[in-house]
Amino acid sequence: MSDTIDLGGAPGNEDCAQLGHTPDFDRLNRLEVATYRAAIIARFGSPPDGCALVSVTNRHDFGVYRTLGLEVDAIAARREPGASYIAAVQDGLGSWVEAGFAPPVRYDDGMAPAVDRDRIDDIVMGALIATRPDASGRFAIPDFEILHRNLAAAYPRSAEAAHALLQEISA
Fold this sequence. Notes:
With 171 residues, the protein is of the alpha+beta class. The chain has six helices and three strands, in the order βαββααααα. The chain has one domain. The protein is 42% helix and 16% strand. The longest helix is centred in the first third of the chain and has 20 residues. The chain starts with a strand and ends with a helix.
């Protein structure tokens, strides 16, 4: 038996796609949920055994929307490290920047939503580049080391691409 804690479709203080209002809602909603999943992993690490970050399908009069959920089996909820992970993650994030991310979608006043990167691998690569250490191995902000390490472990393909791009730029 498992329970799901709904974390929302994006960090709590951020704009996000609105069902019945935002053009291309389904695509943008999926992109925001995938990015939110990566942001949670950046901040708190990958879920331990018995926990999983999942896309939750919600049905509404206006259609279907998705949110990010933390699915937890009953045993993991009572034991470590599951209980600690739940406590850390259950309130979600307040902003994208808490995890080193730029918003995946920009909602400018009255304009159509704008997307700079539309693949999660590219969005994660951007966060890895933003949080990277300098040439001496130091991180500009101490939290960047945690964010960078967690993302690189969970998204090795994006980490390799970020490393290759930085090597190309510095050559």
